[in-house]
Design goal:
The complex is a heterodimer of chains A (297) and B (427). With 297 residues, chain A is an alpha/beta fold. Chain A folds into two domains: 161 residues, Nitrogenase molybdenum iron protein domain (Rossmann fold, 3-Layer(aba) Sandwich); 116 residues, Rossmann fold. A four-stranded parallel sheet of chain A has the order 2-1-3-4, with helices on one face. Chain A has a four-stranded parallel sheet with strand order 6-5-7-8, sandwiched between helices. In chain A, strand 3, helix 4 and strand 4 form a beta-alpha-beta unit. The longest helix of chain A is centred in the middle third of the chain and has 26 residues. Chain A is globular. Chain A starts with a helix and ends with a helix. Chain B has one domain: Porin (Beta Barrel). Chain B is built from three helices and 21 strands. A 16-stranded antiparallel β-barrel of chain B has the order 1-2-3-4-5-6-7-10-11-12-13-14-15-17-18-21. Chain B has a two-stranded antiparallel ribbon with strand order 8-9. Chain B has a two-stranded antiparallel ribbon with strand order 19-20. Chain B is globular, with a radius of gyration of 26 Å. Classes of the chains: A alpha/beta (297), B mainly beta (427). The interface between A and B is large, with 40 and 42 residues.
């Protein structure tokens, strides 16, 4: 009996063994990629959602509860992108550290300016986000504020590593500076090109690159196209000189395929997050990939 | 009259005068406004059109053998399965959901159920926010964590009705009790959760606390709380498959009293017993691609009731040793084949229908199946239209102590809508 209780206590200690590393959970992979850059080997970071799936409707797996239970810090995209799957997981995780009012919670949307903030809120307009378009990280200029906010939060939780995190932030910014120079040189050629997209997920990038968004295949956010809407899109395509259809990896691509074949427009399957396609391995190659595709096609 | 109307006019003029002044003032923000504290509020409506091949009044006479508790009395029909059985249009229920964080220490949720019989508190409970070490305390009136579907609200069910087995053991409202729950999430890599609950134990089909006296037998009421439950669950992820396994147990005393008066007879029946229920629940979901998925849910429940039955029929009182075992299973599979379309099939049955009075077994149909198939269209996450066909072979007509089956073909067209801010649902 004594042996058994020793064994139980020992295995408990093993299970709950706390390393010095900060246990960071992020909702999406792109956040984890930035945290890796800033936190280095002082943090252990895991992203809950996979970029394979629609970021609005992630399956709330019980294993996420186990991960949130042990988290020191939860970093979310915010602007209600996680509203359909995260709140219940937090409530079930029984971990006061990561409640929204706690220090172990960081909402990145609070550090950037959101576009398309609706004036009137009604679900008659589809799946609208009251705070604005939540896919703000698709504008690479926002990465500066995001990285800064992450560094500040890591420092707040782990002040003894302040210097380390600051150094990493500076390295990150330097690398981003170089990358942006490279990207801007390439997107110059894209200025004024007209595109359509399936869901309003690439808007921030479109704006940054000077592309013109002529329309969306979804008639309203979250509502798949009807044949009537496809007809309207065809009219639009015939009237305007549209060069690309930007399709994400998780929405059905049959409408985009149809339009692309019939009207001879290129459909580009672009990653919306790190890991959505093989080429997008981290936050930098995510944009490398998108800009390469737009430039070479 | 005239002076009155004149003074009334004067009052109106003064009021109007005042009103215009206050209107100028409303440009300022009300310093005592608390509108920012409005909790999440949502309202759900569930309506259906129903057809079955049996007349409404006949349907009400049918019962599930051995489940209706004191069935031995032929003239008494106790049907605890309150599914909507009226042909034609039905407003099944309205549900008002209100939830918010009360203070740093508690979350509060209230769910009001609106039906023909009025407004009732379906759930009203608090949940702690700050307990350390992975613990959480829940208290109030709420659905027990026993099993899987019991905690799920009807608007997220994959089929119109509650499974037969839950309906039979816990009634149409499920195991919904007043008490407390303590749950714990283990600090493990994989998901491991366990919880215990202490409830009043008033659930009619399986528990109950009232005292009674029949003939010379006097049975005292049971002290509250009367019901204890416990559960443990764990999950497994393999690539894009996620599975959840849960074991549950519920244990409490059972009391039930039925009296029957007629011009010629006076009958009383009562039960004083102990009920144990065991459950195994398996839920799984496989994400085939970003649009298609396959999910299944299956639960097996086993119930034992042991105690005494007391009978009194105008002439004499009798006491029997009562022993009752029952079990049942439902198994459902749902295939989401397009972004807004799902198809599902469910097979379920009650079995092991076993009742012994003084060691003499009663003859009861021992296999009571029901089959359902549904297809639903979800225009958005806030609306659902479902078509369901059900073939029910669990209901019998009891005549002269003989059971005869009444197979039911049922077609339901259901619509479910929600407005407002509603919380996300767990796996």
């Amino acid at each position: 009996m004594k042996k058994l209780s020793f064994f139980i206590i020992y295995s408990f200690l093993l299970l709950s063994a706390h390393s010095n590393e900060l246990n960071v959970i992020t909702t999406y992979p792109y956040i984890a990629s930035i945290v890796e850059n800033i936190g280095g080997d002082k943090v252990q970071v895991t992203a809950l959602a996979s970029a394979k799936w629609d970021p609005h409707t992630i399956l709330p797996k019980p294993s996420y509860i186990a991960q949130l239970r042990k988290a020191d810090l939860l970093i979310i995209n915010g602007a209600q992108l996680e509203i359909g799957w995260l709140p219940q997981l937090i409530r079930q995780a029984n971990n006061p550290k990561i409640h929204f009012e706690s220090t172990g919670f960081l909402d990145l949307s609070k550090f950037v300016n959101l576009i398309d903030v609706p004036k009137n809120i009604s679900r008659a307009s589809g799946d609208v986000h009251p705070e604005g378009n939540p896919h703000y990280y698709m504008d690479y200029m926002n990465l500066y504020q995001i990285a800064e906010a992450i560094k500040n939060k890591l420092t707040e939780l782990n002040p003894e590593n302040q210097r380390y995190f600051t150094e990493n932030l500076n390295k990150f910014k330097e690398k981003l500076n170089g990358k942006i120079q490279n990207w801007e040189a390439k997107i110059k050629n894209l200025y004024g090109i007209k595109v359509i997209e399936y869901h309003k997920i690439f808007d921030y990038f479109i704006k940054r690159a000077g592309l013109v968004l002529a329309g969306t295949i979804e008639p309203l956010p979250g509502i798949p196209p009807s044949s009537k809407h496809i007809e309207a899109m065809e009219k639009l395509i015939m009237m305007e000189n549209i060069k690309f259809i930007l399709q994400d990896v998780y929405n059905p691509d049959d409408a985009a395929n149809y339009l692309s074949k019939k009207h001879n427009i290129k459909m580009l399957k672009l990653p919306h997050d790190v890991g959505a396609v093989d080429g997008a391995k981290d936050i930098f190659s995510l944009f490398d990939f998108i800009i390469e595709r737009l430039n070479n096609d | 009259m005239k002076p009155y109307s004149l003074s009334l006019l004067i009052i109106f003029i003064i009021l109007f005068d005042n009103y215009t002044i206050t209107q100028e003032q409303t440009v300022k923000e009300n310093p005592f406004s608390q509108s920012k504290f409005v909790p999440d509020i949502s309202f759900i409506i569930d309506a259906s059109y129903l057809y079955h091949n049996i007349k409404n009044h006949e349907f009400e006479e049918l019962q599930i053998p051995g489940i209706s508790s004191l069935h031995s009395n032929a003239t008494e029909t106790h049907n605890h399965t309150h599914i909507t059985n009226q042909k034609g249009f039905n407003l099944n229920y309205g549900e008002l959901y209100i939830s918010a964080t009360a203070d740093p220490f508690f979350d509060l949720t209230g769910i009001l159920h609106l039906s023909k019989s009025g407004l009732e508190i379906e759930e009203g409970y608090f949940v702690t926010r700050k307990l350390p070490l992975g613990f959480q305390l829940k208290g109030g009136k709420f659905y027990s964590g026993f099993g899987k579907i019991n905690e799920q609200h009807p608007h997220i069910w994959d089929f119109v009705e509650q499974p037969l087995i839950f309906n039979s053991f816990f009634g149409s409202e499920g195991l919904n009790e007043t008490g407390v729950q303590l749950n714990w999430i283990a600090p493990t890599k994989f998901f491991l959760s366990t919880g215990v609950e202490v409830f009043q134990g008033e659930n009619e089909p399986s528990f109950g606390t009232q005292g009674f006296s029949i003939g010379s037998n006097e049975i005292e009421a049971i002290e509250h709380p009367n019901l204890l439950t416990g559960f443990i669950s764990t999950s497994l992820d393999i690539d894009d498959f996620t599975g959840l396994l849960k074991f549950s147990i519920a244990s409490g005393k059972k009391r039930e009293v039925h009296t029957h008066y007629s011009e010629t007879e006076h009958e009383e029946n009562a039960i004083s017993a102990k009920t144990n229920i065991f459950g195994i629940s398996i839920t799984g979901k496989y994400l085939i691609d970003p649009i298609k998925s396959l999910s299944f849910q299956t639960e097996y429940l086993y119930r034992t009731v042991k105690g005494n039955k007391y009978s009194y029929d105008s002439t004499a009182a009798t006491v029997y040793d009562l022993e009752r075992n029952q079990s049942g299973l439902y198994s459902q599979i749902v295939y989401k084949f397009a972004k807004r379309w799902r198809f599902g099939a469910r097979y379920e049955f009650l079995e092991n229908n076993f009742l012994r009075l003084n060691n003499i077994s009663e003859k009861l149909p021992s296999y009571l199946p029901r089959y359902s198939a549904m297809i639903d269209f979800n225009p958005t996450e806030f609306s659902r239209i479902r078509f369901q066909y059900t073939y029910d072979r669990s209901r019998y007509l009891l005549e002269d102590l003989n059971y005869s089956i009444k197979a039911i073909h049922q077609i339901t067209l259901q619509i479910n809508l929600s407005i407002g801010a509603h919380g996300a649902h767990p796996f």
